[in-house]
């Protein structure tokens, strides 16, 4: 028996488990693999407030604040670095919209501002200037190590009394009408009156077990890690070229690089398939950072994004099944929003007013045309 069962042991799940246990809730977290072994294991570790919607800016700011103090608060080194985010624009049509985003971010105290091509290259001489029409620089954005964060939250959750079980898969959710009664697992039955779905790309399946529609689907993303790059500066912003969505950041003496493909639902396969993808990546990388072409590919892997139709997270509680909470569908920005997700799920569970208005992130937005504004900065 448990007062609340958290399904999923990635960074969202352990954040929720910690905040609930800290508040005195009897928590059981169930993870079918190992802690942080799913999408979190493949996360780039970016942390930003440079988003295009108000709610995402607010959630991102809470993440930055939490991670900047994480090592002090949790006693775990997470390699937090404020190297910033740099958005390189190659289409003049994008400049007004990005300028508007910068204005929105500054309303919340974010130090985002537009750069001209010369200023962008002066900031990061590594990038070629050809084709750049402007850039958006957000110096306070950061990077950290996701696995270290997972371990920090997990240790703190256990210290507060939570039970975290790995290698246990949820195979059923039992209900009596609109009331939760229990969870069926590969290790037996757990009687509970509350569930938090933090199952990432697998959340749609968890929703089905509960008789609910959680429109979260897996999209495969591949990343290449290069060998040493000549002249690589110590501080490299996480740099995103728009509209190609090619991005890179420093990883040791080389770079981690990828680009987003609008290839839709991809299933749960995480096997790396270079195919036509790698030549396209080489084309984008060679144009923007010519020095990388001599670095070679050191390794590569694929992971899963948990995507929703409007590329915004689903955060709230069901009105169809009492005490069923969800924190999922973060569409590529789950790591940076994990601290806020844990706090908000705790507040909803305890019946408190959430610190951030997350009304537009309710799953019911997909029942009509009144969805949240699409989040465009997904890489």
TrEMBL record:
The keyword DNA damage does not apply. Gene3D superfamilies: D-Amino Acid Oxidase, subunit A, domain 2, FAD/NAD(P)-binding domain. Residues 4-348 form the FAD dependent oxidoreductase domain. Transmembrane segments: none annotated. GO terms for cellular component: cytoplasm. Keywords: Oxidoreductase. It holds the Pfam family DAO. GO terms for molecular function: oxidoreductase activity. The keyword Hydrolase does not apply. InterPro entries: FAD-dep_OxRdtase (IPR006076), FAD/NAD-bd_sf (IPR036188). This is Sarcosine oxidase subunit beta. It comes from Amycolatopsis vancoresmycina DSM 44592. The lineage of its organism: Bacteria, Bacillati, Actinomycetota, Actinomycetes, Pseudonocardiales.
């Amino acid at each position: 028996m448990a007062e609340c069962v958290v399904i999923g042991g990635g960074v969202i799940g352990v954040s929720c488990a910690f905040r609930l246990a800290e508040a005195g809730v009897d928590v059981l977290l169930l993870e079918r693999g190992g802690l942080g072994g799913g999408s979190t294991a493949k996360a780039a570790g970016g942390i930003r407030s440079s988003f295009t919607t108000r709610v995402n800016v607010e959630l991102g700011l809470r993440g930055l604040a939490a991670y900047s103090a994480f090592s002090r608060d949790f006693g775990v080194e997470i390699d937090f670095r404020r190297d910033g985010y740099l958005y390189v624009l190659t289409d003049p049509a994008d400049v007004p919209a990005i300028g508007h985003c910068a204005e929105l971010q500054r309303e919340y105290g974010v130090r985002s501002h537009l750069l001209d091509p010369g200023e962008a290259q002066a900031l990061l001489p590594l990038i070629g200037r050809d084709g750049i029409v402007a850039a958006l620089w957000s110096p306070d954005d950061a990077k950290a190590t996701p696995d270290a964060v997972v371990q920090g939250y997990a240790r703190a959750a256990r210290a507060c009394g939570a039970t975290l079980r790995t290698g246990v898969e949820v195979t059923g959710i039992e209900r009596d009408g609109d009331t939760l009664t229990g969870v069926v697992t590969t290790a037996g039955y757990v009687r509970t009156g509350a569930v938090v779905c933090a199952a990432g790309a697998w959340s749609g399946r968890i929703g089905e077990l509960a008789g609910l529609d959680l429109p979260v689907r897996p999209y495969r993303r591949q990343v290449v890690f290069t060998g040493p790059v000549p002249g690589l500066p110590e501080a490299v912003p996480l740099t995103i070229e728009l509209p190609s969505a090619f991005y890179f950041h420093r990883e040791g003496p080389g770079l981690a690089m990828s680009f987003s493909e609008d290839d839709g639902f991809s299933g749960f396969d995480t096997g790396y398939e270079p195919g036509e993808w790698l030549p396209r990546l080489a084309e984008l990388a060679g144009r923007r950072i010519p020095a990388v072409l001599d670095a070679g590919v050191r390794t590569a892997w694929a992971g899963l994004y948990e995507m929703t139709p409007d590329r915004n997270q689903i955060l709230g509680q069901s009105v169809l099944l009492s005490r069923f909470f969800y924190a999922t569908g973060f569409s590529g920005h789950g790591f940076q929003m994990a601290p806020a997700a844990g706090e908000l799920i705790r507040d909803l569970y305890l019946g408190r007013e959430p610190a951030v208005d997350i009304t537009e992130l309710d799953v019911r937005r997909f029942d009509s045309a009144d969805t949240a504004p699409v989040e465009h900065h997904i890489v």
